Amino acid sequence: MQHEFAAVVEQDGEWVVAYAPEVPGANGQGRTRDEALASLSEAIALILADRREDGLRGVPDDAEQTTVRVAA
What we know:
Layout: E1 8-12, E2 15-19, E3 27-30, H1 33-56
Antiparallel strand pairs: 1-2, 2-3
């Protein structure tokens, strides 16, 4: 599944930093824009996986679990 998020990219001295305003806590950095965006992408994936795991903890065994697609 593919998602798109807004990314803000800024130069900070010798580093490029990036963050996703829609995903609190998602930050990335690198020496180049591409490295910072790749780092941000990994951070978003980890945060979403963690939130999914937390959200599904305690779901009753007989509850239906499925997915939903969101078109922006």
